Amino acid sequence: MLKAQSLDISYDQKKILDNFEINVEKGEIVSIIGPNGSGKSTALKAMSRLIPVQKEKVFLDGRDLQSLGTKSISQMMSVLFQSNEPPSDITVEELVKYGRIPHKKWYERTSDEDLSIVEWAIEKTGLTPLKDRLVASLSGGEAQRAWIAMSLAQRPKILMLDEPTTYLDIAHQLQLLELVHTVNRELGMTVVMVLHDLNQASIYSDKICVISKGIVVKYGTPEEVMTQEMIRNVYGVECEIDSHFQHGKPRINLLGISKVSAQ
Ligand code: ADP
Ligand code: MG
C-alpha cells in the first residue's frame, strides 16, 4: 500500500533520513516511534510528498509517488500534522466538509452522501455539540478532534497522523486511538501514525517502525520490536517488559534513565 525504499532526505547537506525503508501493507496500523528529532515527521512528509523526494523511492498502491497528481494523492491519502492553522471564521462543520473536496469536481455541489459522511465524522469524533462553533474558538484538544474529523471525512485509503494524541487528555487519547482502530477494522483504512507513548504504540499497532537518528533500527510487530535492548539503545531508558499484557501485546514499564548512555 505504501512503500519507501532507500529514501534519503537531507536539509542543508545534513542527512535527516538515511536509507529509510518501510513497507506498509493494506489494512495495517503502523506506528512510527523514536526520540525527538529522529526524523519521524520528515518521514511522513516525504511519504506524502510534502517535501520533495526522488523518483522511484516512494510507492503508493504500487505507483511512484512522483508520477501521481496532487488530486489523486489527496483522494487516497489524508495527512494530519501537529500544528494546523484553520482558515479564519470557519465552523467545525465547514472544516469537516473540506474533507470532501478531493472527491468532487469544482462545479459539483455537496451531495447527500457527502453530508452523511460529514455527519458521521463529526459524530465519531464526539463533536456533534460543537459543530456550529468556530474552529478558532475551540480548545487545543477539540480543534485536534475537528482536524481528525476532516481527515476521516476525506475517507482516505491511508490515514497518516503525526502525534495525533499530543493535545488530548488521557480519555480523549484513548478515544482517538479506539476510533483509529475502528476505522481501520470497519473501513479497512490503512493507518500510519507517529506516537510517543510506547504502550499505546504497542497496543494499537500491527507493526512498529523505530527510527533513531534518521535510521530505521527496527521494523516489525510490537512483540518483535519492544525489547529492553531497543528501548535502552534508542531512548537511553531502562524498562521491564510484560510480554503478554493485553491481547498478547507487550506492556512496557519504564524504570528510569539508563546508566549505559543511549547509542
Ligand atoms: P521528529 O519528528 O522525529 O521529532 P523531524 O523529522 O521533525 O523529527 O526532524 C528531524 C531532524 O530534521 C531534526 O534535527 C530537525 O531539526 C531537522 N529538520 C526538520 N525540518 C527541517 C527543516 N525544514 N530544515 C532544516 N532542518 C530540519
Ligand atoms: Mg515530529
TrEMBL record:
UniProt cross-references to Pfam families, sorted A to Z: ABC_tran (PF00005)
Entry membrane topology: Peripheral membrane protein
Principal cellular location given in the protein's record: membrane
GO biological process, one term: iron ion transport
CDD domains with a match to the protein in the record: ABC_Iron-Siderophores_B12_Hemin
Gene Ontology, cellular component aspect: plasma membrane
Name of protein: Iron ABC transporter ATP-binding protein
